């Protein structure tokens, strides 16, 4: 069985996270349920868990011998890749179907009212923030053989 390099796993996890967010956007956009509040929580949860899983796998590839700084950098790169894929698709989706979405199944939610606020606020800022928190948490929690600093007793 072929061993997956750390760089390749970074791209794989970034693409998978981005595609999950894209699939959610298509599904919820087609049903006009994208305005529901829980959709944002679902996407943020996918980003958080995906980055944690990517860091866990990265540490496993390197036999848990990587420093926390390298694990954090892996999480940041995964977050940036997934957020870039999602943001690019969201812009394309808005330009193609967002302005005239009469084919949707439900009509009880506002369409893309305030799209740019949603785009910069949720798609970029919140996803990057959640990814950074997951990267920081994952880098320091999933590190095996953690060593604490010596406590100075006065």
Automatic annotation (TrEMBL):
Coiled coil: none annotated. It comes from the Bacteria. Keywords: Membrane, Transmembrane, Transmembrane helix. InterPro entries: MFS_trans_sf. SUPFAM superfamilies: MFS general substrate transporter (SSF103473). The chain crosses the membrane at residues 12-31, 37-58, 79-97, 117-142. This is DUF4199 domain-containing protein.
